[in-house]
Amino acid sequence: MISEEEFVKAIKEEINKVVKLQEELDIDVLVHGELEKNDMVDYFGEQLSGFAFTINGWVQSYGSHCVKPPIIYGDVSRPTPMTVLWSTMAQSMTARPVKGMLTGPVTILNWSFVRNDQPRLETCYQIALAIKDKVGDLEKAGINVIQIDEAALRGGLPLRKSEQSFYLNWAVHSFRITNCGAKDTTQIHTHMYSHFNEIIHSIIDMDADVITIENSFSDEKLLSVIHKGVEFGTGIGPSVYDINSLIIPSAEEIVDRTTKMLATNILWFNPEFVLKTCKHTHKTCKHTGVKLALKIFISAAELLCTELAHAKKEKYE
């Protein structure tokens, strides 16, 4: 056991390492690593009223990965500001923007055991309002880029076609509640995965400024849908490389795979999967492997910028 003071000190040291590494690599928008979290739902649930937790209520998620879903037993609200400490700590270490990271209401709902004495959508709206307060907390603390993850939105889609439209309507509305009071200068990101080509218009209706997707897992089918004419209108982070892969692509491969599908003016470069656990899961994800992969990503972004600048110059000559 360690004291709270020792815990904060240890996490601060790790956040500093993460921030300095990203600055060294010349990354534009930084993350703090979320090293303080045990689970993206459990962590936030512990800071909300209306949630209860088990000690040994483990549920298998996939493979050997298990989680302890919280129990939503009552009305949900946010009693005190959340996540502000870690985000502002990271932001104080750099002049570059640092993302504030939050879990979306639909994901919290779908990855919890939910009370059955009221409709699920009402509970989801309560969670959304609590997260809306969190967004305001982060803005007041000077965080201007906020990511609201909705990893489980597609996972909650009913099997019956007749019920899907109703679910998508309140799920999308819940997400929009979370940032409806955000400033015009605040950039809202979201992150999603799964096969959601058939619900692409609902994804668009979420109205996030930037969406990052686990595209390499879906054989780039989602980007193909967008490329074929769906008007997305927001920034896209297509995750063209799975960080757990044995093969690290070259900068040229990354540029080629991405630009053949998307307009370059809406493109964000980001890797697939979480980096904070990589060094524990795969030999290619040691610190040096992650650093090499990120260096190649930066090279790809620089290569694309150079190509665009050259093309623009030729256009006006």
Automatic annotation (TrEMBL):
<dbReference type="GO" id="GO:0008270">
    <property type="term" value="F:zinc ion binding"/>
</dbReference>
<dbReference type="GO" id="GO:0008705">
    <property type="term" value="F:methionine synthase activity"/>
</dbReference>
<dbReference type="GO" id="GO:0003871">
    <property type="term" value="F:5-methyltetrahydropteroyltriglutamate-homocysteine S-methyltransferase activity"/>
</dbReference>
<dbReference type="InterPro" id="IPR038071">
    <property type="entry name" value="UROD/MetE-like_sf"/>
</dbReference>
<keyword id="KW-0479">Metal-binding</keyword>
<feature type="domain" description="Cobalamin-independent methionine synthase MetE C-terminal/archaeal">
    <location>
        <begin position="2"/>
        <end position="282"/>
    </location>
</feature>
<dbReference type="InterPro" id="IPR002629">
    <property type="entry name" value="Met_Synth_C/arc"/>
</dbReference>
<dbReference type="Pfam" id="PF01717">
    <property type="entry name" value="Meth_synt_2"/>
</dbReference>
<protein>
    <recommendedName>
        <fullName>Cobalamin-independent methionine synthase MetE C-terminal/archaeal domain-containing protein</fullName>
    </recommendedName>
</protein>
<dbReference type="GO" id="GO:0009086">
    <property type="term" value="P:methionine biosynthetic process"/>
</dbReference>
<keyword id="KW-0862">Zinc</keyword>
<dbReference type="GO" id="GO:0005829">
    <property type="term" value="C:cytosol"/>
</dbReference>
